[in-house]
Each structure stands twice: as C-alpha cells, then as structure tokens.
Amino acid sequence: MIEQILASGVVLTTPILLAAIGGLVNRQAGIVNIALEGKMLVGAFVAIVISAATGSWLVATLAAALVSMVIGYGFSLTITRLGANMITAGLGLNVLAAGAIGFLMSYAYGSSGTLRLPDVALLPHVFPQSVESVPVVGQLLAHLDPLTILAVLAIAVLPFLLGATRFGLWIRATGNAAPVMLAVGLKPKLLQEASTAFAGFFAGLAGAQLALASIGIFNEGLTAGRGFIALAAFYFGRDRPWQTAAACLLFGLLDAAQIRMQTVGLPPRLIGALPYLMVLVALVVSQMRSLRRTQ
Amino acid sequence: MIFKKLLAGVALSLLAVPGIAADAPVAMIVAQGGLGDGSWNDTANAGFEAGIAETGLEGRAIESNDVVAQGEEIMRRAADSNFGLVLSLEYAHGEPMEGLAPDYPDTSWAIFNQVRAGDNIASVLFGEHQGSYLAGVLAAKMTTTEGVEGINPEPILGVIPAVKSPGIDKFVVGFIQGAKSVNPDIEVKVGYAESFGDPTKGEQMANAMFEGGADIVYHVAGGTGLGVIAAAEASGHYAIGVDTNQDGLAPGHVLTSMVKRVDVATEELIKAYAADKFPGGETLKFGLPENGVGLTEMEFTKDIIPAEYLEAVEAAKAGIIAGDIEVWDVSSQGYPDFYN
C-alpha cells in the first residue's frame, strides 16, 4: 500500500513541482505568476502535437518548454514595459491560452475537447523494470521519468543558484529592492523578464510531463487546476526550493492517498477535498508561525 | 465563432420558406467536452449529420467555450436566428430550455437524459442503467475466471464515475446491481474522479483499484476515462468503456463498452421533425428494448470470454426486456438502499 501511494504520489507531484520551481524563481524576482496554469496547458498541447509529429519525446518536451518560455517572456513584457497589473495580465493569459488552444483544436483537428493523435511518443522510464523488486521505493523507481529527475535536480541546485551565484542574488535583489538594483547600474526589468521566461520554460515542462508521462492524450481540462496548486505551493514554501518541494509532495501524496481512501467507502466529496484542505491548513500554520517570529 | 455560425443560420433561413417549420434549419448545441471526445458529442453529431443528409435540411453544430453558463443565451440566439429545431446535448440546458421554450412556440426543442415540460420540447431518455446492468453481469462473471491473463481470483470490480450526480450514478447503480445478480458477495469499489477531463487522475485511480485486487474497472467519466483505459492497458487488466464503442482504444484490454445510441436518437428526432411529426411534449425512451443501449460486439475480447457468459448476458437482456428483471434507475427512483 505504502509502495503504491509513494509511486502514485510522485506521479501526481511532478507536474506541480515543475510549475512551482518556475513560479518560485519568478516570485523571488518580484513577479507573482498567476499564468502557470495557462502555460502548462500550452506546454501539454505542444508536447502532444510535436511528439506525434516527430516521434521523439525529447524534441516534444523541448518544444513545449520553449514555446511556453516565449509566451512567458511576452507575458512579462506587458508587466515590466507596459505596466500591466500582474494578476490581471496573468488571468488574461490563462483565458487566452485556453481560448487559443480551443480555436486551434477545432480549426486544425476538428475537435473541441480531446485531441488523440496517433504515434505519440511517451516519456521513457529511466530505470529498467527489474528495479520494481527494490523494497518500498521499487514501484516509484520503476515509473520514474526523466522530467521527474530533472525536477529533483533543479530543487537540489536551486538553493545554491539563488543563494551563492551572482545571477541568483540579482534575482533576489530585484524582488526585494528593484530601485537599489537600478541605483547600482543593473537592469531589474531585464531580470524580471528572464525569470518569467524561466517560469514559462518550467511550466512548459510541467505540461509536457502531464501529457507525455503515460497517457499521451491532450484534453482541454488536462491541467485541472495544477498551476494554481503550484502557486499555493510556492506561497506555502515562501519561495524556498526545499519547502516548496515539500508542499508539492505533500499535495501529491495526499491526492494519491485520497484516491485509495475513496475506494474503501469514505464519502467521496469530503475525501476529494482533503488535499486542498490540508494545503490550506498548512498555509495558515506557516503564516501564524512567521507572524509569531516577527512579533 | 458562434456568432458567425448563427449569421450563417440567419442567411439560410432567409432562403428557406418562412412559416413552414419543417423547412427551417436544425441546430445542435454541443455539450461540455466538445466535438472530438470520441464519446457522447461525437456520437450525437454522427446521427445529426446522418439526419440532415437524409432529410436535406440545413444544419449547424453550435459550440461554445462556456456552454453551461451561456446556455440560455446560446439557445435564445439559435431560436432568434430562425432555427426550427434546436437540440441541446448539454445536460445543464434542461432547466433554461424549459423556461424559454414558451417564448418560442414555433421552434421545436429537444433535451437529453431528463424530462422537461413543454408542448414543443421532446425529452429523450436512455436506459443506461439497463446497459450498465449487462456490463455488471459480464464483469462479475469474468472477474473470477481462471486462466485468463490479467484476471485474479478475487471477486472485486471497480467503477470510476466522474462526479456524484443522479445522471452518472444511474450507470454505477445499474452496474452494481448487475454484478450482484451474479454474485451477491462481490465487492465493487467506487471512486469519483471529480472531473470529466483529467486522464492523469483517471489513470491513478484505476491503478489504485487494480492494486486493491480489482481486475475490471468500468469508467463513466468521459475524458478522465481515457486514463482508466490507458491504465488497464499498461497493467494488463481490463476496462469497460462507456457511451461509444471504446473497445478499439486499447484492443484486448477494453472488455466491452456500454454503448448509448444517442446517434439513433438525434437522427430520429431530425427525421420526425422533417416529416412534421416532431414528438413535442413527449418523452422518448431509448432503452434495451429499443436498442438504445447495449454492449458492443467485443471484437477484441470475445476470444477470452467464455460463451456461457455471453449467454448469461443475453438472458439478462431478455429478462429486462420482458420485465422480469427491474433495474434500479437513480435518475427517476433516487438512491437505492444498497448504494448511497
């Protein structure tokens, strides 16, 4: 049971974690990225289309990340150069992404809800099937895909990148005191744009993982609010990589657990809301703690 | 886009002779999930297109990104644009349709899966509970069969409905009742995915059920169900498809599909309308006796299903048609004691 919850929990965590990685760096630079959801959806769509066309998961994943990155960059320009409100612009981008994909689907594929293409190449499993016999984590390892490993690596190196490299410090300084950055002759707007492009890149990866991990089908509801869960996760983690990852994992594991609790007859609506409820509780607790610290 | 389509509809209706209802074009409002769902909307559209081809009427499928919230608006614009018959595939359009139909007495309306009052509204009901009962009989027989790959000895089945609502639980309860008619002690695990469009969730839920000893999982969850079928294929177990023939989505791993012939319904409605015999104010039933629901031919799985099981399914079908077996219908009878 624990084995399966772990394996399933990691599958459910990865897309949220990838999106949250981009989102936390973005927020460190002072931009709250509401549009992760929309960019994930774009990533998933591009991944399916390119994977079917090229037969390569790698090309598809890169294409998804790059397209979302370009969209993320364009999105940041409206905020940094045109002074748009970041929440409004983000919501607008989510609506635009869903609408544009809906249009493309009906225009190019004559379909308006689900896109099923032949020969979609899925993400490979990193380890051979034989690792399944490893106790406790065997199932998890057997289903591990390259993007999950990338997410873990990113979380491992981000504290160093943000805390000990020049670029990382610039990002954080931009978020904390943009005028100071200007005063010392750096360009905070450029850094904000770069960080938003970075968030787009990772949201694109998140979408690609969601679409190509095992199903290989695009559906307009595929992201199912995961971009917003990612948002909650990096708020909860106060933009710190490790804490954010922990929040994502907590949500993924709870979701995997609630799926199993439902089947033993507990009320489905209540159990289904459990992961969201726990994230809410966690947010309240972390906020109360930080308040106490400042008093 | 809708606006354009409606404009086209206006232009068409100006060409048609006004006043004679059966000449005015026909509109079909596509439900959530949209065309391309390989299921409900696509099947209905096939019948819609066959109907307009056969009658020579003009017809338009109307799509909207916000089909639920804009329901009334879409329907009013369709009627204002002189469509003579408006079919809505969207369940949530029933209530607004009942409210607005009296404002458009010359327009014929049709709604599915519910009964709505109005002299110009035709209500169409399907016997999903009856079809699901047959699926339950087959699954309960199969789940303890020895020597079939992917089938374990435990009498455990699974159902993954999208949301908890009478329209969906109608399938679930029919399936459970059918399964229990074969084996009263059978366990049927039920897990709601809370979404019609989240295949990842569907896949994880199906895996959880397979791990829990289930070997056949019935999905009633649209796009989410595509993940259930993918999980069955990946793990070597079985899924049961819904609405359309989904047997070919994972050949050999979709035991059968509970098919709902909404195409027959849309086609017949259009033909009746064209012949000036539209069944306004009536409720049309497409159950087992009318061949409105049923199981597929099991093209890819018939080799692993023993002949006596198929005979049992046929016997159950005959029993339901003859009235010897009464299948519980959640949408009209509420919830039974054995399922809440």
From TrEMBL, chain A:
InterPro entries: ABC_transp_permease. The chain crosses the membrane at residues 6-25, 32-51, 57-79, 91-109, 147-169, 190-211, 273-291. Keywords: Cell membrane, Membrane, Transmembrane, Transmembrane helix. Its main location: membrane. The keyword Hydrolase does not apply. It is a multi-pass membrane protein. Pfam families: BPD_transp_2. It is found in: Cell membrane. This is ABC transporter permease. It comes from Hoeflea alexandrii.
TrEMBL record, chain B:
The lineage of its organism: Bacteria, Pseudomonadati, Pseudomonadota, Alphaproteobacteria, Hyphomicrobiales. It is a lipid-anchor. InterPro entries: BMP_lipoprotein, Peripla_BP_I, PnrA-like. The keyword DNA-binding does not apply. Residues 26-325 form the ABC transporter substrate-binding protein PnrA-like domain. It is found in: Cell membrane. Belongs to the BMP lipoprotein family. Its main location: membrane. The keyword Transferase does not apply. It comes from the Bacteria. This is BMP family ABC transporter substrate-binding protein. Residues 1-21 form the signal peptide. Keywords: Cell membrane, Lipoprotein, Membrane, Signal.
